[in-house]
Amino acid sequence: MIQTTTDRKWLPLYEALASDVRLTILELLAEQPRNVKDLAAMLGLSSAIVTMHVKKLEKGGLIVTELVRKQGGTHKICSLAVARIEMLLPQQVEQQRIFDEVSIPVGHYTRFEVHPTCGLATAEHMIGQFDDPRYFFEPERMHARILWFGRGFVEYSIPNYVLAGQMLEEIEISLEIGSEAPGVQENWPSDIHFYVNDTLLGYWTSPGDSGQGRGLLTPAWWPDSTNQYGWLKVIRITEEGTFLDGQRLSAVTIKDIRVSRNEWILRLEVPEHAAHVGGLTLYGEGFGNYNRDIIFRTYKR
């Protein structure tokens, strides 16, 4: 097989194909190798004309010829060189989208209200004690790589880098989250609500608090008997609505989000009035199955 492109080096091949006579020669040679004299007789052309066409097919790499001694004479035998040609056309280059990206460690919340079970940990150790919300004020919480609570919320302030004269197209938020059960419970649904600038985008029902095996990145000191990993969720707020992992979450569009000149405020909440109050675990870099913090992107034009 020959795989071609639009590179100009393939012009002899394309030129070789641009002839009804030469295409017929290829069809005849597909039946069996033939000499120039036989091809000329079958085409009703002179041997000189057929020789010219054969040379073009040779130059294009489509046939090969060899001199063969036969019946007391020398014959130029032509045969196919390839059985298939595939042409790769140029792929349309997607226009690069302009975006700003901020990676927010899970401990960099600016407001919170949490209720047990709750806690935080760095990649090396627990921060304070289990189930004591006071430690959410602890300065070391800035180094937290995992946090969890039974109900309540955490809120993050994120710089707004969209400039005057730029139009906001889309907000994309990605994070690893799951429920929060005492210990581990695979079946522990929780309605996790997402807000941007106090606008409710919708909620996702986490199926449980996963513990079937350890998280790929979970530190060795972390107990087996507690939360190990979550689900990577991607939220997109667009001009058509809000989508979670590509599925429509709500009718909230980018135009429905109140814009502050300086910041975006992201809130993750499990309210007490939810149908499933199963808490929230938020995994950052060095915990769970995805080595990442909260990623907040703003696309603009």
How would you describe the overall organization of this protein?
The chain is mainly beta. It has 2 domains: 2-87, Arc Repressor Mutant, subunit A, CATH 1.10.10.10; 98-300, Galactose-binding domain-like (Jelly Rolls, Sandwich). 13% of the residues lie in helices and 37% in strands. The chain contains 4 helices and 19 strands. A hairpin with a 2-residue loop joins strand 12 and strand 13. Helix 1 runs antiparallel to helix 4 (47-59) and helix 3 crosses helix 4 (47-59). It starts with a strand and ends with a strand. The mean pLDDT is 93.
Key traits:
mainly beta, Arc Repressor Mutant, subunit A, Jelly Rolls, 9-stranded antiparallel β-sheet, 5-stranded antiparallel β-sheet, 4 helices, 19 strands, 13% helix
Reading off the top of the CATH hierarchy, the class of the largest domain is best stated as Mainly Beta
CATH architecture of the largest domain: Sandwich
Secondary-structure element pattern, one letter each: EHHEHHEEEEEEEEEEEEEEEEE
CATH topology (fold) name of the largest domain? Jelly Rolls
| Category by helix and strand content | mainly beta
The proportion of residues in beta strands is: 35-45%
Intertermini distance: 44 Å
> Which percent bin holds the helix content?
10-25%
Mean pLDDT: 93
Q: CATH H level of the largest domain: which superfamily?
A: Galactose-binding domain-like
Low-confidence stretches: none
Total helices: the number is 4
Domain module tally: 2
**Biggest beta sheet attributes:** 9 strands, antiparallel
Radius of gyration: 34 Å
The general outline is elongated
The number of E-state strands comes to 19
